[in-house]
Design a protein that fits this description.
The complex is a heterodimer of chains A (77) and B (336).
Chain A lengths: L30 H7 L15 E5 L2 E6 L3 E4 L5
Antiparallel strand pairs in A: 1-2, 2-3
Chain B lengths: L8 H11 L6 H8 L6 H15 L5 E10 L22 E2 L2 H13 L4 E6 L6 H17 L3 E5 L5 H10 L3 E3 L9 H4 L5 H13 L3 E3 L2 E3 L5 H14 L3 E6 L16 H14 L4 E4 L3 H14 L5 E3 L11 H10 L12
Helix pairs in contact in B: 1-3, 2-9, 2-10, 3-10, 4-5, 9-10, 10-11
The chains are: A mainly beta (77), B alpha/beta (336).
Chain lengths: 77, 336
Amino acid sequence: MSAPLSTPTGEPVGTTYCDQCGQPAGEGEHDRCAVRRAMEPPRYCADCARRMVVQVTPNGWLARCGRHGERTSVDPR
Amino acid sequence: MAAPVHTDILDELRDSVLERGEPATSAQVLQLLRLPDERLEDLLELAHQVRMRWCGPEVEVEGIISLKTGGCPEDCHFCSQSGLFASPVRSAWLDIPMLVEAAKQTAKTGATEFCIVAAVRGPDKRLMSQVAAGIAAIKDEIDINIACSLGMLTAEQVDELAAMGVHRYNHNLETARSYFPEVVSTHTWEERWETLRMVREAGMEVCCGGIVGMGETDEQRAEFAGQLAELEPDEVPLNFLNPRPGTPFGDLELMPAGDALRTVAAFRLALPRTVLRFAGGRELTLGDLGARKGLLGGINAVIVGNYLTTLGRPAESDIDLLGELSMPVKALNETL
């Protein structure tokens, strides 16, 4: 049996996570997350679901994942 | 025998608050909070008249920033920054260049206040030193009043902050004294009051408000208005609970918009001369229409842009709305 394909950082290829609840984006209900996203910065890394260190500023936000680096409100990725 | 004369509460307050500037009592506030929906517009109109008469048309604009986020040892049940709950908010410290940049962003909106906030029980030496460095760096580059919100203070810390040139200190009582133990168990309402007393004694302006919609009764909301009136703060920020995931209040329902507007107007009548500021949760609870109604129902100050851990309306939307309502932004030399 072959191992599943993975990215250089170890996550399975194609897996993305909800930045509000940290659960796989393609599984379960994320309606509340979608509503929340309008007034919330991301809390979880969409690539690995790690909880990010988030700094909200008067007109934006900056979120840092220990493995995948920074993303900002200007460049949310 | 003559029938008893029933005076309408709004007529009664038109005479005492609007004409004579006497704050509404807790008992009167309770009646206002229980007015039926069909009288809400009348209440908002009276609150607006009171605001215009005793405060004027200007609106004070403020921006806020979290200097130290998360990891707080206290258990305020509404707060996503408590280290005691399973909240997704992680600890973070802001560096001085980012703090100065945030102050610049705030000043660009026309704001006259910039409030530096830390999620702590009270400041330690490291935080006081970061605040001192931050204030000095901001004052070097920007002309704006600086406020701080750093939790409970010692007498020495109060003096240090006053010496740093802090214009206003925020410390919310959060809710009525009788309901506070349901909201916080790691410190008391009286401890908060003591900090506020020292702040006033040191000559800083007192900013003290709270959050409504945390499960308190109408009586407790009215009690809170009376307690704030007794404190006579320079500013009252009024927040509406935004239930935060992972906190003990995370599953509470949003406060109905009508109740939120009743509260705005009732607090204005209890605090006719105070800066009454729209703060967190208004976007969710009231939406765009509510922001307008609040500004025409007693509010005379806003926090623009984002909050400490959540996002707000773009500052331009609020500034545009103020222009539309012919409410000038208060200039720096006109602040209290």
